[in-house]
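Supplementary notes for students who missed Thursday's class. We covered one full example, reproduced here. Read the sequence, then the structure, then the short commentary at the end.
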Amino acid sequence: MTVSGVSATSPDLLRLVAVPVFAWAAYRDIETRRVSSAVWIPLSLLGAALLAWEGWLSWTAGGTAWTYEFLIPTAISLGVVVPIAYLFWWFGGFGGADAKALLVLAVLFPTFPEYALGSVTLPLETTRIGTFSFTILTNTVLVGVALPLALAVRNAAAGRIAPVMFVGWPVSWDRIPETHGRLLETPTGLSRGGLDLDALRMYLRWRGLSLADLRERPDRYRDPATLPDEPNPPTDGAVTADVSVRGDGGALESDPDEDRDPDPASAAEYDDPWGAAAFLDDIDSSAYGTTPETLREGLEVLAEEETVWISPGTPFLVPIFVGLVIALGYGDLLFGILF
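Structure (token representation):
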């Protein structure tokens, strides 16, 4: 079958539908860190149908087409790539959308496709086992390793030399409300285990505060007595969440003068500074693994610093998409490097 000068089997041509879908999913993940599970259902159904179609074509072709060119690569794809994706998700290596994307690719691309463009056949570099989803996975890992190196080069070129230069960069505090990622600072210095910015947005929405409000009167809002009597829904912390909050974070019953801050010297005496524990108890959630101490440390940093280091936490769907594109064009990067 030939479409726009590209010759391939019908199943292989239909598999190219995955490219724009994965491009959209990667963009969506960068912008919102949210990808609906509904995205993967049509691709899963398409993959299952194409798998059955290709199996029938291989069976009727005779020779080694059924065993070596279809059955073995498909068994590896479903028996190795699928469990790897599940285990990485189970142990927290990546999110649910990333695992679902790899599961879809295991069903959609079990065997190496072939696309003839004139005298050139893509992919250029194939492997002996012939499992295309495994090639996408290894390409993804190599791209994922290259991203921190590229980030470090970018920081070094800008003169930003720091222990976290491989995983983040500095941004102004006023960009934080519209930024996804993780804070890489605590009051004692740089750290890889800082506050998740989605959890920060959940806290601010719950209190009915903006980050600017908090920075303007930090001593006031450290006092848990200023927590609102009727908190707002925290949402899931997405930048794009449609939310309307009420209040300014509460008022001190003993402080009718709203312009007067509590005594800063008493802040250390609060049992629950910032109301961090009360927030997590009220929402009955860990808020992306956030502890009261992590939330308090992040708020202390953001209340004072003009510029902070954050990790953008590049969504794994980005290297998955890049790994897919490389696989369709070049083929297997690791095989090409080693052999």
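Commentary. The mean pLDDT is 88. The radius of gyration is 25 Å. If anything here is unclear, bring it to office hours.
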